[in-house]
Each structure stands twice: as structure tokens, then as C-alpha cells.
Fold this protein.
Amino acid sequence: MSGKWPGGFIKKTAPTVVGPTDGEGGSASGIWTLDEVADYEKQGLWPAPVIPKELYSWGFNNQGQLGLGDKSTRNLPVRVGALSAWSKQISAGKEHSLAVTNDGKLYAWGYNSNGRLGTNNTTSYSSPVQVGGLTTWKQASAGKEQSLAVKTDGTLWGWGRNSDGQLGLNNTTAAYSSPVQVGALTTWSQVSTTTEATAAIKTDGTLWTWGYGGNGRLGLGNTANYSSPVQVGALTTWAVVKSGFKYMHAITTDGKLYAWGYNANGQLGMNNTTQYSSPIQVGALTTWKKIAPCHPDVSYHTLGTTTDGKLYAWGYNGLGQLGQGNTTQRNSPVQVGALTTWSEPSAGSHNNGNGSSAAVKTDGTLWTWGQNDVSQLGLGNTTNYSSPVQVGTASLWSTVSMGYKYALAIYQG
């Protein structure tokens, strides 16, 4: 507990490490001037409180993708290992998972065909294994059979299947089992990969895509394949990009939402089922904040949140994955309930075209709905739900990532 007053700073909880003990500020209690506090914080002598972040998983586990040391399906969230320093950068893929720790380590686990785990082999692991020895990873994305990640130095790396150029390495070499740098640039900010296609944003706000171009999913005005990054249009205001199954969504800095690619079930949100090969704005809203197209395999729905905390869903709704209390398909964004407390959405896939949904609220509660045949909703059963249902009673969840019939989530314990 701490508090400021006009002339200084009162600290009632002693830091783990304090300043010098030679009479120049070694006391960990009492009144400290603002300058003294700032100086010690700058030197790392007044550490910020550490909030444990635990990783949980549940659902289908045929390849060890839950990271629990076995291949048994779980119908409730189970903690992954003993680490409590996971960041919010988690990614559930087809049958493999990626996660970054607060200290920049990258871990992978699950099925390892095509070397998608980046462990320099094709051995599958049912518990998290560190990818190399680096501590400079920033964000990672697990696709269907490939992985891509950005480092803190702005470099972009890819590994796993590459038959359609989805790693962006200027070739279609079948696969790589260790991370390989994509070009030489140090200006990459974020990356998202799914089924045979990848998208990324640079620090200058430009958007780039590569890989398989079928259905116009690369947004380049055609259906061609590209094995190296190609810029999408001329905009320099892209803020968020997410790859879905055969389609993509992206948000600009002014809150506009764009979509392109496959649209047979209205998953683009254009109020039609027309396919587009270039980015088209979704509606007129300029308050979009987060977007979650369904990935990494055969599913066709999308979730999104706005800056005012509303949650929207659209696309295929065969098992209630849109959270509307019914199974009616929607070709345009429809608000999920009336609440304005939604924060982090995620849409998961299934091989039959249906899928599951999850979202975290601003109060830290976790909610799931949709298909649940292998307990991917984490509700202790295999019942499908067409409206959001709370997962347990905890209120310290910070983010969730739904993959192919399973999910990962971070709990701030």
C-alpha cells in the first residue's frame, strides 16, 4: 500500500530490495521524497509488486496441447506446470500451443509435425518446452501447422510447415524445425498466423500478408500465393490484425474494422456472403478495439469488442457460438447481450464448421459458449450453450485463447 502527499511519498509495504543502508535512504518505511523514490525505481532498487500469472488449459488433448504432461482431455481449467510468470502472450493453435513469459522466454508444446514447436526436431511434447535459450521474445502466434513470433528487437521469425510460403521466407521449403528470421527488418510489431496464411503489422503502421492466397484471404486484390511479405494497400494506420480460417480482420488506429477473404457464412460481417480479396470496412462503427476471427481450422464465426465494452458476434451459428441464445446465422455484427463490460474475446475452431467462443470481462470473470463436445468450454460437461456461461467463480482472469477444440487462459493469482 502506498500513497502520495504534497511533499513526498509514503510507503507502508517494504520493497524486496531497498536502497543503501549507510544512512542515505536505506529505510523501507516512513516518508520518502518523490525524487528519492523516482531515483531508486530507476536503479531497480524499489521493485514494483510482482503479480503471479498462472497458465490454465482445458478441452481436447489428443496431442498434449494442454501442456499437462499427458494426453487426457480436461473438462475444467487445470493449471499448466508451476510457473507463475506467464505474460498475456498465449496462443492456442491446431494441436500445439505457444506462450511467452514475463522475462521473454518462449515455450511450446503439443504436436510437432513439421517442426511447429521450434525445438529443432519433430518430437511432440505434452509439457511446455523452451524454444532455444533466448529471452527476447515478445509475441507469438500458433497457426494450423506453423508458428511465427516477434522479438523485442523487432525481428520476425517463423518455423513449422511452409509448403505455401506461410513462413514468409521467400521459398516453399516444406518445413523448418527451428525459428528462422523473416528477412532482415527490425520493424515488426505483431504477427498472426492461421491456416496456410500469415499477417503482420510493422511499427510504421503498415500491414503485410503472405502465404496461401485462396479466397482472397491475403487482402492483396487477388488469389495468388506469396512466399514473402507483401504490403496490403497503402494505409499506415493499422493497429491490430488477426487471421481467421480463410479470412482476416484488422482494426485501424481510428477504430475502424476491416475484413477480407472467405465469407460464405457471413463471417466478414458485411451483411452478405460475398467474398472479398481486398480490405472492406465492416459497418460504420469507429470504436472497435479487439477482434477475434475463428482460427486455426474449419470454423466460420467472429467476435469483436468495442472501446465502450460491448461484445459483438457474427457468422455461422450452428451450435450457438454467437452467444445470441439461438442458432441463427448473422451476416453483420450483433451485440451479445446488453453488457458493456467485455474485454478480451477469442473464437475457437472445430473440424465440422462449428466452433466455440470465450471472453473475459473487465471484472476478471471468464465466460464461454458454443460447441462443447470435448469440453472445450471448461464448464465440467459436454453440453453446448448458445449464451455466455461463466467458467467457475474466479474473477482474476486476464486473457483467453481458444484453439482447435481446446483453450488456454491466464489467471492472475
User: Anything to note?
Assistant: Confidence is low (pLDDT under 50) at residues 1-29. The first strand starts at residue 2 and ends at 5. The radius of gyration is 22 Å. The longest helix spans residues 34-43.
